[in-house]
Amino acid sequence: MNVRTAIHFRKSFFGEAERPVAEAYGMTASLFRYDSGIEAVRLSNRRGHLVVLPYYGQMVWDAVFDGVDLTMANMFDMPRPATEIVGTYGCFAFHSGLLRNGCPGPQDSHLLHGEMPCAPMDAAGLEVGEDDEGPYMAVTGRREYVMGFGAHYAARPRVVLRPGSALFDIRMEVENLSGAAMDLMYMCHVNFAFAEGARIIQPAPFTPEATAVRTVVPAHVPRSPAYDALLSDLARDPAVMEVLDEPERYDPEQVFYIRGLRTDEEGGTAVMMRRREGDAFHIAYSTREFPKTVRWVLVNSDQKVCAFALPSTCEPEGYNAEAMKGNVQKLAGGETRRFAVRLGYLTADEAEAEECAIRAL
Fold first, then answer.
1. CA distance linking residue 101 with residue 239, whole number of Å
2. What are 136-174's pLDDT values in tens digits?
3. In a domain, 137, yes or no
4. 6 belongs to a structural domain
5. What are phi and psi of 118, to 5 degrees?
6. Is 292:314 a contact under the CB 8 Å cutoff?
7. Cβ–Cβ contacts within 10 Å for residue 332, how many?
């Protein structure tokens, strides 16, 4: 059964006071506006809530379930207007890409993580309904990107919450509206909180080949002999970061490329960060949609993040470097590509079962 009701937002719906706009299936959607002027939708169920920014790249700003904050520690008390993601780097998740992605190299001219993270959306709304998995609420959006003598595409992001679940979906659909092929570089950039002492569970060994440390360091990362020595140590033995018991290793940041992840018959895989308390943060996706997986860990006085699995079509070394590696995909004229990630929080019992499932892949 597939039934749905759509509510089309207007910016005038969003005021200083938070107000419910829909209640169904034990879930609530409420609207408000931050003091910074940025509109927000709170999707809630009995387990917790998400805060989605419907007109601002459709970021997921906040995620809390069973009283556990899933979002990176950061310097931002609210989302702030910016044209580049570093101007508001406090969100739980953002859409990185779509024409360009990653840290620009010396020969690149694109923004950090491309044009989509802070993009103004042309339309946004709420969808309430039932599908093959049961009831849901979803924040929806659309952005048309068009550039004279350049690319022309439609991006349709979507965030889906279900009743009684602390797992949710982040989706992206990209349609090339041009007759010419376009570049496509997309990463679902999920910034989970750093949990000291947590253990990373992945269906790949912690060997230099399968968990490869990034040795090409972008310009924004300060270099020193000690940092270079640490990179060399991690390149030889990445297993030391399986357990996050040495936070000082991640200042400056560390980036790893996780290769050769085992999958099920449909190409699905999953990665988990299991906290000392026994519960876990979890993410699952298709390696057919996302052939690359990146790990980013940073711990300093201002930011603490363990993005333990960033599903991506490419690695994050900027357009020219990724093009040389053959990692820039092409979307033919009129073609549509869809991406889906399921992620969130697992209780200790759920985490135990999922750890067994990951190790069985």
1. 28
2. 999 999 999 999 889 999 999 999 999 999 999 999 999
3. yes
4. no
5. -110, 20
6. yes
7. 13
In whole angstroms, give the CA distance from residue 294 to residue 212.
10
At 348, which helix (H) or strand (E)? helix 348-360
Angle of CA points 165, 74, 161, to nearest 5°: 15
Burial class of residue 329 in the structure, from the number of CB atoms within 10 Å of its CB (0-12 exposed, 13-18 middle, 19+ buried): middle
Residue whose structure tokens are 């706009």: 21
- Domain span at residue 42 reads 13-360
Contact 351, 274 (CB under 8 A): yes
Given a cut of 90, whether residue 217 has pLDDT beyond it is no
Q: How many domains does the chain have?
A: 1
Q: Is 7 within a domain? A: no
Dihedral of CA atoms 74, 78, 81, 82 in degrees, nearest 10, equals 10
As a dihedral over the C-alpha atoms of residue 263, residue 271, residue 56, residue 339, rounded to 10 degrees, the angle is: 10
CATH of the domain at 230: 2.70.98.10
Give 76's pLDDT tier (boundaries 50, 70, 90): very high
Q: H-helix or E-strand containing 321? A: helix 319-324
In which band, very low, low, confident or very high, does the pLDDT at 249 lie, cut at 50, 70 and 90?
Answer: confident
Q: Does any domain span residue 4?
A: no
**For tokens 């409420």, what's the residue?**
30
Q: What Rg do the C-alpha atoms of the chain give, in angstroms?
A: 20
pTM comes to 0.96
Question: Phi and psi of 236, rounded to 5°?
Answer: -80, -35
